Amino acid sequence: MIQVNLTKEQNTVASQEVYRLYNKMSGEHLYTTSAYEYNTLTMTNSSWSGEKVAWKAPKTGNNVYRVYNPNSGEHLYTESSFEVNSLVKQNGWKSEGVAFHSDSNSGTPVYRLYNPNSKLGAHFLTMSSYERDSLVKAGWKSEGIAFYTIK
User: What is the pLDDT of residues 24-47, one digit of tens each?
Assistant: First the structure.
């Protein structure tokens, strides 16, 4: 019998950092794997402040799409290509393609919430079930698990 001895590097999932930014004017959070986008927005636009790395996403896996609403300035993240297509066709959102990937086999859940009382920054993502529950108590609507990050 041949034994294969995997190193730690071979056992780990290739990942990329997902940066989180906050827009103090709109209340929106933006998530990006692009250090260039993160640095450009935080250095050239006083509305955006960097909140460093939010989580690590696998380099492969289920697509997580980013769509943009030019009317409200909001970004939305979803694994559902149907949701992307519906928003683009019916509501004027713009598809920005694949933002990052999801680790749906063994990852940590990221919850998506919606604030029905907000016109700007109406969606929010969090890995914290405590934060999710606190926002629900404050009137936000839980939309369940949006996708999974690497544990």
Answer: 888 889 999 999 999 999 999 889
Cβ atoms of 71 and 104 closer than 8 Å? no
* pTM assigned to the model: 0.85
* Dihedral sign, Cα of residue 87, residue 23, residue 33, residue 17: negative
Enter the tokens of residue 150.
Answer: 């690497």
Residue 3 lies in a domain: no
**Is 9 within a domain?**
no
Could you list the residue range(s) of the whole structural domain that residue 33 is in? 14-149
Q: Residue 77's Cα: distance from chain center in Å?
A: 5
Answer whether residue 40 is part of any domain: yes
Print burial letters for 9-34: b (CB count within 10 Å at least 16), e (below 16): eeeebebbebbbbbbeebebbbbbbe
Interatomic CA distance for residues 118 and 50, integer angstroms: 22
All residue ranges of the chain with pLDDT < 70 are: 1-13, 105, 120-121, 151
Residue 33 inside a domain? The answer is yes
Domain count, the chain: 1
